[in-house]
Amino acid sequence: MKVTAISVFPEYFSPLELSLIGKARTQSLIDFRSINLRDYTADNHHSVDGTPYGGGAGMVMMAEPWGKAIDSILEKDEEIDLIILSPAGSKFNQRRAEQLSRASHLVFACGRYEGIDARVGDYYRGVKGVRVHEISIGDYVLNGGEVAALVIIEAVSRLIPGVIGNPASLDEESHNEVGALEYPTFTKPAKWRDLDVPEVLLSGNHGQIKKWRQEEAKRRSNLSQ
Ligand code: ADE
């Protein structure tokens, strides 16, 4: 899968060199590239923002640098999923991660300030081969879309075949079924600071263990609602 992040802070994406995603990149399972929005500006100051029409606090990112940056991607790839990060977008979840994991090229538009001129999304919604998704990672406001893009890239990458060493671990995972959080897990030693591992897990009775895990997962899901 190709992944491109457009940002005024491409350095934000250096953690993608680490751990499983870093390895997936060396194995060419993920082809990640960040591009600097300022490279697509036309003035000496490399301006990317302007005051909002209609007034109000803060600055808005101008459409033209985004248009040029996204067009440069479309020159090489005609099919992209364009993800515009915004606290006003639809809420990201595991279903959306699964949907995006089937894409061939994810392009993240990481806005800063008060967001990106709304015409960017409107324009690309009308371009053949481009699917536009406006996504929020939660009901809070970040300084920009970069951290949100990192969250989505991590959730999506681990669903790409070959990225996770043991694909069976994906099946048992939290959020695989709506509302079902994963059961609690334990490892050695069996007693730690007076706390014992639940007896059933030491019993070797796989039927009982499965039942206990299902009940615990259900209990946790109810607690978190
Ligand atoms: N940009 C600022 N806040 C955000 C959020 N919660 N989700 C996605 N992008 C954002």
Summarize the structure.
The protein is 32% helix and 20% strand.
Describe this structure in words.
The chain has 225 residues and is of the alpha/beta class. The chain folds into 2 domains: 2-166, Alpha/beta knot (3-Layer(aba) Sandwich), CATH 3.40.1280.10; 172-224, Orthogonal Bundle (Trp Operon Repressor, Chain A), CATH 1.10.1270. It contains 8 helices and 9 strands. The protein has helices at 19-26, 63-74, 94-100, 119-125, 146-157, 168-171, 199-202, 206-223, and strands at 2-7, 31-36, 49-50, 60-61, 80-91, 105-109, 130-136, 191-192, 195-196. The chain has a 5-stranded parallel β-sheet, with helices on both faces. Strands 3-4 form a two-stranded antiparallel ribbon. Helix 1 links the parallel strand 1 (2-7) and strand 2 (31-36). The longest helix is centred in the last third of the chain and has 18 residues, at 206-223. It is elongated and about 70 Å long. The two termini are 35 Å apart. The relative contact order is 0.15. The mean pLDDT is 95. The site of adenine has 11 residues, from strand 5.
